[in-house]
Design goal:
- The complex is a heterodimer of chains A (403) and B (281).
- With 403 residues, chain A is α/β, with parallel strands linked by helices.
- Helix content of chain A is 42%, strand content 18%.
- The longest helix of chain A is centred in the first third of the chain and has 15 residues, at 30-44.
- Chain B is of the alpha/beta class.
- Chain B has one domain (8-275): TIM Barrel.
- Chain B has helices at residues 8-19, 35-48, 67-78, 83-96, 108-114, 116-126, 145-150, 168-172, 195-206, 222-229, 239-248, 258-275, and strands at residues 23-29, 52-56, 102-106, 130-133, 154-155, 158-159, 179-182, 213-216, 234-237.
- Classes of the chains: A alpha/beta (403), B alpha/beta (281).
- Bound molecules: pyridoxal-5'-phosphate.
- Residues 94, 120-121, 123-124, 199, 239-246, 312-313, 357, 359-360, 385-386 of chain A line the site of pyridoxal-5'-phosphate.
């Protein structure tokens, strides 16, 4: 299928990455999705749109985000030279804002006044509420009732920013159900509403568009490492929920054959426990939320409830481009359990003075395993996708203490 | 694919036209609240006045359905319903009723996982006449629509208020059996459609196709059903039936002696109202 000698040309016109992707949505939404596709195509080719993005990225988001040599972590693990791409230092505390900025500027171009979003950890919800406040747009965020409970600080932030947060009580009450509810809202309010999806999933063009908005992470990484080390990285590693922070780092390097790439899936209580969120390691291809991709499900095609300590990874699917990159074996997807992530969380806090979000603590958990096996001149870049303030209650509970 | 026999769907719409009245299409969720009761309801529908039957295939994540049908699907799944059991249920129904069209309605994933070719063969053998798959727009026709037509099953497409004249031909191109006009922008069981606007929309669709047009989403009472049916070839009622099932259950969620009869009574009322709609010749 990949006739061209590149992993970076996807998707095709109809949104396919290999067998994955596509547009599996109700007819009511199709005209909107085609209009979005067209609007994005035009915006992308318009230098004024790019200039507007660049201005806000520099002065509002605070880009470029630093790249930082984690000296003590490197020393402790005794192998690869570890760099952290500091997406947690962006305004709102995660990489999510890169994508939201792009989509909100696009929504403004399209004349949409009402923005809806789904959120798991609440980081995408906070970023969306933030930009809606900045541009005076109505904002409604759907969030699973379980996540409302475990990510309370972010619920409060969204409300302060003027968004309404709707707790979703259907199904497993987590991210997938929030996405169902957001889609139901969109079907009902097609005319005035823009659906701002928080990851590289959903019907085409979302997976490609969100990736494009996040790809700045990898482009900056290349330039920054070039400056500091005089060369590019040897390996990249990032946590994968839907996969937006990961593809944001990876995409720039997919055609660099010497760069090893690792995506880290949440393995919850372990793959064999059945309680996990590792769609590639433990799932198979299916169709949900507008695209074909690896999904956790039973033999009848019923979607399984995912489990992860991290609300942002607690989703039974993964973006279609990752499924493709797995099929063609360009990226290696590794499972990381709740307890390995907690170990990563604590290690980074103690050695580097950085409290990571539980999502990217999964990447740190695997760095602890992989870095020691690499030579000392091996350059490894970890995407530190978010900061951990939102997670202190969850972590305290798991470590048997209290905040 | 010209067939020497008209399909059950075509035959039923032809006889409705001959009778000079619109049809009543009823929706139930397969396996709700359990397999046995659900089959009993299915068998009772034609006698109560249903002209065509949609059987909902339960799915964990029904993104176009409102709370009533979501809950019905979850009840059925909890009771152990699977796609294979749904096909077996249709086969049992078909053994006693050779004429009433049965259309499976649902989402693509259970069919994709079952395997498209195996599914089409088994559905055909069970006596299924058509498919309505909510998350397969014309952009994805190669997935199931074209194979279904080839296998002799009607693929019934949804047209919506957002399907404009430019897009309508693409939506209708591979549609067979009838066109399902979704009367509102929204999920099943939501807002009540405006009968006047619906009949205008039906007229617009009919400029593009000779197929019958059925209208559904949001129709709940006999009065609404009659008003909508007056401007269409058939009216679809779903959430109201599923709601009647729910209301009849005991506190543990189990069927009661009322379950089948409550649904039958509701359908009789709807059928009487729809049959009262006189057609201008
Ligand atoms: C900090 C952080 N990292 C990662 C994720 C996972 O999303 P994605 O895989 O799209 O980056 C989230 C999602 O909520 C997040 O908040």
């Amino acid at each position: 299928m990949n006739v061209l000698n590149s992993y970076r040309t996807g998707p095709d016109e109809r949104g396919h990455f290999g067998i994955h992707g596509g547009r599996f949505v109700a007819e009511t939404l199709m005209p909107n999705i085609l209009a979005l596709d067209e609007a994005y195509r035009v915006a992308r080719a318009d230098p004024a749109f790019q200039a507007e993005m660049d201005g806000y990225l520099a002065h509002y988001v605070g880009r470029p985000s630093p790249i930082y040599f984690a000296e003590r972590l490197t020393e402790h693990l005794g192998g690869a030279k570890i760099y952290l791409k500091r997406e947690e230092l962006n305004h709102t505390g995660s990489h999510k804002v890169n994508n939201v900025l792009g989509q909100i500027l696009l929504a403004r171009r399209m004349g949409k006044k009402r923005i809806i979003a789904e959120t798991g950890a609440g980081q995408h919800g906070v970023a969306t509420a933030t930009l809606c406040a900045r541009f005076g747009l109505e904002c409604v965020v759907y969030m699973g009732a379980v996540d409302v409970e475990r990510q309370k600080p972010n619920v409060f932030r969204m409300k302060m920013l003027g968004a309404s947060v709707v707790p979703v009580t259907s199904g497993s009450r987590t991210l997938k159900d929030a996405m169902n509810e957001a889609l139901r809202d969109w079907v009902t309010n097609v005319d005035d509403t823009f659906y701002c999806i928080g990851t590289v999933a959903g019907p085409h063009p979302y997976p490609a568009m969100v990736r494009d908005f996040q790809s700045i992470i990898g482009r900056e990484t290349r330039a920054q490492l070039m400056e500091m080390e005089g060369r590019g990285p040897d390996s990249l590693i990032a946590a994968v929920g839907g996969g937006s922070n990961a593809i944001g780092l990876f995409h720039e390097f997919l055609d660099d054959p010497d760069v090893e790439i690792f995506g880290v899936e949440a393995a919850g209580h372990g793959i064999s426990s059945g309680q996990h969120a590792a769609s590639i390691t433990g799932g198979k291809p299916g169709v949900l939320h507008g695209n074909r991709t690896y999904l956790l499900m039973d033999g009848d095609g019923q979607i399984a409830e995912a489990h992860s300590i991290s609300a942002g990874l607690d989703y039974p699917g993964i973006g279609p481009e990752h499924s493709y990159l797995h099929d063609v074996k360009r990226v290696t997807y590794l499972p990381c359990t709740d307890s390995e992530a907690l170990a990563g969380f604590q290690l980074l806090a103690k050695l580097e003075g950085i409290i990571p979000a539980l999502e990217c603590a999964h990447a740190i958990g695997k760095v602890m395993e992989i870095a020691p096996t690499k030579a000392k001149d091996h350059l490894m870049v970890v995407n530190l996708s978010g900061r951990g303030d939102k997670d202190i209650f969850t972590v305290a509970e798991h470590l048997g203490g209290q905040v | 694919m010209t067939s020497s026999h008209p399909t059950r769907i075509a035959a039923r719409f032809a006889s409705l036209a001959a009778e000079g009245r619109p049809g009543l299409v009823t929706f139930i969720t397969a396996g709700d609240p359990d397999g046995v009761t659900s089959l009993d309801i299915l068998k009772a529908l034609p006698g109560a006045g249903a002209d065509l039957i949609e059987v909902g295939v339960p799915f964990t994540d029904p993104m176009a359905d409102g709370p009533a049908i979501q809950a019905a699907g979850l009840r059925a799944l909890k009771a152990g319903q699977t796609l294979a059991k749904t096909l077996a249920m249709v086969a049992q129904f078909r053994a006693g009723d050779a004429a009433t069209p049965v259309i499976l309605m649902g989402y693509y994933n259970p069919i994709y996982v079952y395997g498209v070719d195996r599914f089409l063969a088994d559905a055909r053998a069970a006596g299924v006449d058509g498919l309505i798959i909510v998350d397969l727009p014309p952009e994805e026709d190669e997935e199931l629509c074209l194979p279904a037509l080839k296998a002799g099953l009607d693929f019934i497409r949804l047209a919506t208020p957002t399907t404009d004249d430019k897009r309508l031909p693409a939506v209708l191109r591979h549609t067979a059996g009838f066109v399902y006009y979704v009367s509102i922008t929204g999920i099943t069981g939501a807002a009540t459609p405006d009968a006047g606007r619906v009949s205008q929309a039906v007229a617009r669709i009919k400029q593009h196709t000779d197929l019958p047009v059925a209208v559904g989403f949001g129709v709940k009472t006999p009065e609404q059903a009659a008003a909508i049916a007056a401007g269409a070839d058939a009216v679809v009622v779903g959430s109201a039936l599923v709601e009647a099932v729910r209301a009849s259950l005991d506190e543990t969620g189990a069927a009661t002696p009322r379950t089948v009869s409550d649904v039958v009574q509701l359908v009789q009322g709807l059928a009487a109202a729809v049959r009262g709609v006189a057609r201008a010749a």
